[in-house]
Design brief:
three-stranded mixed sheet, alpha+beta, globular, 3 helices, GMP Synthetase, Chain A, domain 3
Length: 130
């Protein structure tokens, strides 16, 4: 099953999708996992930016399989980011902390490239970019 999630404050990083027909996971469980995953992702920060990676728009996709395995596609603010080698591990650890999650895979992608338009209003306010 493929699920992409989004909070109302995050512009475009990920989208809500209904449960796929025939999914082994009930919609309530998908919603709980999605909320918990987003909460966990909001605990991960780029050390140089005082905003979490979810509100920065660095999370492009969250897929939850019927087995509760989670696949995350994420990016960085710049390909040469000093924590490029560490941040996917931080994201993986955060996702693994969610109750009920199976295997976790984090893919670092650069297409489309990140730009400030992906940030939520919350991130813009925190960074005085409003």
């Amino acid at each position: 099953m493929d699920l992409e999630s989004k909070t109302e404050t995050a512009p475009e990083p990920v989208e809500n999708a209904p449960a796929a027909p025939g999914s082994a996971l009930p919609p309530e469980e998908i919603e709980r996992l999605t909320d918990d995953l987003i909460g966990a992702l909001k605990t991960v920060y780029d050390p140089e930016i005082p905003v979490d990676i979810y509100e920065l728009g660095l999370i492009y996709k969250i897929d939850i399989s019927d087995d509760r395995d989670v696949l995350v596609d994420m990016t960085l603010t710049a390909p040469g980011c000093p924590v490029a080698g560490e941040m996917p591990g931080w994201v993986e650890d955060a996702v693994r902390s969610v109750d009920g999650v199976g295997d976790v895979q984090v893919n670092l992608v650069f297409d489309p490239p990140w730009d400030p338009s992906r940030m939520s209003d919350e991130a813009r306010v925190a960074l005085n970019m409003y």
